[in-house]
Amino acid sequence: MPLEPGVLLNSRYRLGRVARRVGRARLYQAQDEQQGRACLLQAAPCVSPEAERALQQVAARLISLRHPGLPRVLDHFAAAGQQWLVLDLVEGEDLEQRLARQGPLPERLVLRWAGQLCAVLGYLHDLTPPVLHGGLQPSAILLTPRGEACLLGLGLPLPAEAGLRPEPTGFAAPELLAGGRADARLDQYALAATLYALLTGQAPPDSGERRVGNAALVPPQVLRSDLSPSTGPALVRALSLQPAQRFASLAAFCQALLRPPSAAEVTAVGHREPPTPPLAPEASPAEPSPADTTTVKRAAAGSPPPGTIGGTVFRPLGPDLSDPLDTLQEPPGGLPPDVPLPPPIVIIPPAGWQSDPPPRPARPRWLLPAGGGCGLVLLLALALAGGSALRGLVASPASTATGTARVGAPASGTLAPTSTRPAATVSSPTRAAQPTRPPETPRPAAATPTARPSPGLTRAAPGTPVGSGGRLAFISNRDGRFFQVYTMNADGSDTRQVTADPVDKWSPGWAFNGTQLAWSPNGAQLLYVAAGVDGATDIWVVGADGRNPRNLTAAAGDDFQPTWCSDGQVWFASTRTNRIHQIFTTTLERLAAGERPANFSSTHNSPREFDPAPYPDCQRAMFTTTLDGPNEIWRFWPGCAGCLRKVRSLKAQGGLAEEPALSPDGLRLAYTRVLAEAREIAVGAADDLGLDAQLTSSRSNYSAQWSPDGQWLVFVSERDGNREIYRMDASGAGQTNLTQHDAIDTDPVWQPASP
To answer: Which stretch of DSSP H or E encloses residue 101?
Structure first.
């Protein structure tokens, strides 16, 4: 039975709600009252003295482990008839929840998680003596807010050790059910079963039922014909009932699963061949492949570097890293025939690889990323994938006193390189050599902004395809009467007026700032802010061609700062409740039905909360709040007591952090820094895993918004004495005045690409 919230355990840990279950174990949110921090408590029933001894023996070892794919184990104790592990608080959705919500998942996404799980399980298996998980299944794999796989449930005794009967879930190896001798092939089976379920939408048949002939394993390529040729056979072999028929090691399984398709498996036009026939029947032993013995070399005794399996480094590569949420799905019919299939994983030998990250300057405890090491997987992967993936996230060695690298200033205008080691590949007798990546064309250094446009800040050539989106919408009073909505090309050409009614769509006298425009997800409509019948501002919608403008939120109080998320939700700030800035969400359909918007704000009391910036999943958001005094950027999502926390603050320097803008993949944050009356734009990792790069330096830059491809930013600048709209790339280079008009031009937003 779960314990009631509020119980104090071990005279220290105040129990909260059950956050999730992993097998028989419950994970509770809790508060460490000695340290004043949130944590997780993992509870396992103490059903026998053997179970208690088993957990006590392994707990001390778990406390010493450090891996990006594992939450840190901080403490262990026995209380209330249960054994408890104290873990770092990690937030996110587990893969059982994702599968129930979304059904079978994109293969590329599943294989990316597989690479991360191979790395963490290999780390555990390479310890001396090895550490087995023993309960791997979708509910034991948590996706952090960055989309990385983090392994939960470690340290639970195996059923035979605990005197328990294993649960027939479809993920347990038959030797676990039979209580026989277990080794690392136990986790190989469970990992293969987990991947099988994620790809097909159903768990494999229970291994006990398969053993007695009551059920048979259907090869995954039969249930899903678009799988890569190597995926199905690798999973079938790893799901063999006899451990000797599986791969000789986890490393061999992962290499077989994650290897790029050979030329024989992919046709010249990039179309996948039909799936290969299933392996031999389960009763026939399979000979180990050459890869089982020739490519695997165990590390020396002790703790191997994180991210290795038997001395081989597994890291995801390429665009699969860009979006942790749902943008990696392939078309229903697979890839188009003219697009070659890129390898989802690169296998990099460990020569010269350093497991420890470079030292970072100390920063306050609340700026540490949630989940301990789980948030570092992506940055390591990006560093191995090449320097271009980190441009805009890594600050140069020369930093300002406030901990922000200056880009565009002569002293520190160049970002630090992220990697100088090429990504070599490991070849095997059965795989063709992997092509090397072409060298990246060097990007010119950022121009130094000046008080007047200089030759380095020139208008881009008309028609230049920039940002992978459509037109820019902005607000201007260039008609000489009212502030109206306009659009233009991304190079500043072909300006068109969208609205024409005699009402301001922006005003310097409004009691709020921030961007007052937003595109619909399909780019067909625009949201804007204008006065309603009672004089307060409301959210309006209009077609991109200016047709059919209508008031959406006619209500008491000001509604402002709209944004339109990909699932159709409209987020905005409002003073409709107690005349205090708060954040609300709704949809056009709910508004048309007369439903009130939902209050998203975290406190519902005196602090002002505004500048909503939802994550790509449209369930979480960053925003500006005065909860701790000055304007700071915080994040929050409902149903998570520990998810309200600071993301950016300049309180210690006497400044403000405001106007957050998340990149389309949710990984980078652009925002406005206000210090000594200067407003500048900075960019950094959304979860604050490194120094921010300050991209502007002319003291009057703000309201940054991302391009649809996440490679560019548009923003407002007053560097030439007038509000103008500028564009720059994500590293701060090529700052270009797009409007160059005597009128006030403000609030630029980038139209999504046409569907």
So the answer is: helix 95-102
- The span from the CA of 28 to the CA of 42, in Å, is 6
Structure tokens at 377: 């997987």
Residues 719 and 739: their CA atoms lie apart, in Å, by: 13
- The amino acid occupying position 227 is L
CA distances 378 to 150, 320, 374, Å, are 12, 11, 9
Q: What is the DSSP string of 574-613?
A: E-TTTT--EEEEEEHHHHHTTPPPEE--SS-SSS-EEEEE
How much is the pLDDT for 46? Answer: 64
Closest to 313 in 3D by CA, of 380, 379, 260, 373: 380
Q: What is the dihedral of CA 340, 341, 344, 345, to 10 degrees?
A: -70
User: Is 128:302 a contact under the CB 8 Å cutoff?
Assistant: yes
| Strand partners for 673 | 657, 680
The 8-class DSSP code of residue 240 comes to -
Q: Left if phi > 0, otherwise alpha if psi is -120 to 50, otherwise beta: which for 352?
A: left
331: DSSP letter: P
Q: Region 345-359: what's the mean pLDDT?
A: 32
Half-sphere exposure in the Cβ direction for 31 (13 Å, CA): 10
Biggest alpha carbon–alpha carbon distance for the chain: 84
**Do 596 and 574 form a contact (C-beta atoms < 8 A)?**
no
Q: Could you give the residue ranges of the DSSP H alpha helices within 242-376?
A: 250-258, 290-294
Is residue 670 within 8 A of residue 663, CB to CB? The reply is yes
DSSP assignment, residue 372?
Answer: G
Single out the residue of 578, 577, 617 nearest to residue 599, CA to CA: 577
Report the chain's terminal Cα–Cα distance, integer Å: 50
| The two structure tokens encoding residue 317 | 């590569």
- Give the predicted TM-score (pTM) of the model: 0.45
Give the span between the Cα atoms of 369 and 376, in whole angstroms: 9
Give the helix/strand (H/E) hosting 185.
helix 185-200
User: What average pLDDT score do residues 575-592 get?
Assistant: 90
722 vs 581, 689, 701, 726, 742, CA distance in Å? 29, 35, 11, 12, 7
Q: Which of 68-82, 259-273, 586-600 has the lowest mean pLDDT?
A: 259-273
Give the count of beta carbons closer than 10 Å to the beta carbon of residue 719: 21
Angle made by CA atoms 153, 159, 160, in degrees to the nearest 5: 140
Residues 507, 529: Cα–Cα separation, whole Å: 10
CB-count burial class (<10 Å; 0-12, 13-18, 19+) for 284: exposed
Structure tokens at 186: 């136990």
Query: Does the pLDDT of residue 219 top 90, yes or no?
Result: yes
Residue type, 203: A
The pair phi, psi for residue 321, each rounded to 5°, is -80, -10
Instruction: Please state whether beta strands 582-587 and 569-574 pair in parallel, antiparallel, or not at all (unpaired).
Output: antiparallel
Backbone angles phi, psi at 230, to 5 degrees: -85, -15
Q: What is the DSSP letter of 651?
A: G
Whether 312 contacts 350, CB under 8 Å: yes
> Which residue, chain included where needed, has tokens 């009614």?
501
For residue 430, give both structure tokens: 């059965």
**Amino acid type, 501:** D
Q: Secondary structure of 16-68 in the HEC alphabet?
A: EEEEEEECCEEEEEEEECCCCEEEEEEEEECCCHHHHHHHHHHHHHHHCCCCC
Secondary structure (3-state) at 339: coil
Q: Rounded to whole angstroms, how far apart are CA atoms 90 and 39? A: 8
Does residue 723 surpass a pLDDT of 90?
A: yes
According to DSSP, the β-strands at 692-694 and 404-406 are parallel
Work out the average pLDDT over 409-426.
Answer: 34
Q: At what angle do helices 250-258 and 107-125 cross, to 10 degrees?
A: 160
C-beta atoms surrounding 308 within 10 Å: 21
Q: Which residues lie across from 611 on neighbouring strands? A: none
Give the up-direction half-sphere exposure of residue 647: CA atoms within 13 A in the CB hemisphere.
30
**Count of H-run helices and E-run strands, the chain:** 13, 37
